[in-house]
What we know:
Blueprint lengths: L1 H14 L17 H14 L1 H42 E6 L1 H4 L11 H6 L4 E9 L8 E2 L13 E2 L3 E5 L1 H7 L1 E6 L4 H5 L4 E5 H7 L9 E4 L2 E12 L8 E5 H8 L8 E6 L4 H12 L7 E4 L5 H40 L1 H9 L4 H38 L7 H27 L3 H6 L1
Parallel strand pairs: 5-10, 7-9
Antiparallel strand pairs: 1-11, 1-12, 2-5, 2-11, 3-4, 3-8, 6-9, 7-10, 8-9
Amino acid sequence: MRARSRLRSWFGARRGGHPKAERRPVEPSVLPPRELLSESLAGMLQRPGRSALTALGTVLGVGTFVAILGLTATTSAQIDSRFDLLTATEVTIEDVTAQQNAFAGPVFAADADDRIGRLGGVEHAGVFWPVHPAGSSGVRSSPVGADSGGGDSGGADIGIVAASPGALLAADPHLAQGRLYDDYLSRSAQPVVVIGAGTAARLGITTLETYPAIFIGDQPFTVVGIIDDTRRKADLLLSVIVPRTTAERVWGPPKSGDAKMLVATRIGAAGQIAHEAPTALRPDHPEYLKAVPPPDPRTLRGTVSGDLNQLFLLLAAICLVIGAVGIANTTLVAVLERTGEIGLRRALGARGRHITAQFLAESGALGALGGLVGTGLGALTVVVVAVVRDWTPVVHPATLAAAPVIGLLTGLLAGLYPALRASRIQPAEALRR
């Protein structure tokens, strides 16, 4: 009632409609910005619960928009850093004598690990190669011909890898149980193996407390460790890893071109190690070896980041559309409920553009308010997820600046049709209701 009396006196004074007032020329009615904001605020506070629920759609849409872009940027930064870290700390040295048709005997000497380890910047290094035992029936958890008592007791397709202790350390495995074999076990050619978690599951090995053994052909080996993750050489998780000297004693040295060396370096030293390693290993014939630092996967990480951005932006757009539909629906209901008020305003001199501006101001204010709250919640979500995952939160300043503006535009677009509909209500029809 106070708003109506204020509008009646304001518009009546503008039009000179008071009976005792001095007749003046009719002035065009105007709605100053201050009055527009005041009326819009009064309209929103008239039903605060509904206004809060209306703004909730924009809060969710804008909050999702900020959170998704922030999490995408944070995830992309983690992907880039992991790619960069692997690129800067890993070198593979290959035996290329088979390509050159050169007969050089064992390219990697028995002390190859020590030779590379003396280079500055090397953390771990070791020789490895795939083993293909002739006439072997594969890897089993029971002797050949024994009754396993049911279940999958082995498999001919399980990979066997001969690796020096340095190669295992360079792969940076994570132990689920047991231990890795060390230099002593390797030098003495002990029949021990380390297996991956996938291989252990296939062989039915769940614990090392009973000192389980596996059989490669008819050769028994004691399982001393189970690994469930590796930073490099992920194929080791599906393999049986045998000490280098044990493999040479049982199956002989590797074939020409099969052996490789894995080198883990300090950050930034990979290029220098790749240049020095062939000479350090074979000063007489460095051409027998080829050092291969991993390529910089810019295209791959760019594709991964681009796909994540496109997917998450689509999800954010869907949330914004849902929020806009909620604002439009609530604003249209408000127009229908306030038909009498709109008619009274029109009768007192308000024009159609004034009504349009008022409802646009209300929907825009709700959108802007939802955008501000959503921006704060989205940024908080990014920080919380980053802290939980031990990441560095990344939110672009342009995203934080654009989010409230997007909320405002969403509110204005959502309120455009209801505002235009309200402006077309005729005073006579409205006052009859």
